[in-house]
Design brief:
Length: 79
């Protein structure tokens, strides 16, 4: 997905990757990535928990809006 994100960014579409593996994000270097500590298969945290899932999505959107400087931007999950 990081390579696709890079191509989308070159075409003017902002992206944020939800990454569960820091090493993968460091190697692929998507333009923006939110590094998440959740188990594999659960990038939006717990299933059937819309408030928790909204927190992840809000943080990803904030990263997309606030990210300054040259890519890649790797942000840690704050919780």
């Amino acid at each position: 997905m990081g390579l696709v994100a890079g191509e989308l960014e070159r075409r003017g579409i902002a992206t944020v990757a939800l990454q569960l593996l820091r090493l993968a994000a460091e190697k692929v270097r998507p333009p923006r990535a939110l590094l998440l500590p959740f188990p594999h298969g659960y990038p939006l945290e717990r299933p059937n928990d819309p408030p928790a899932q909204r927190r992840v999505l809000r943080r990803a959107l904030e990263l997309c809006e606030a990210a300054e400087g040259p890519p890649p931007v790797l942000a840690e999950w704050p919780d």
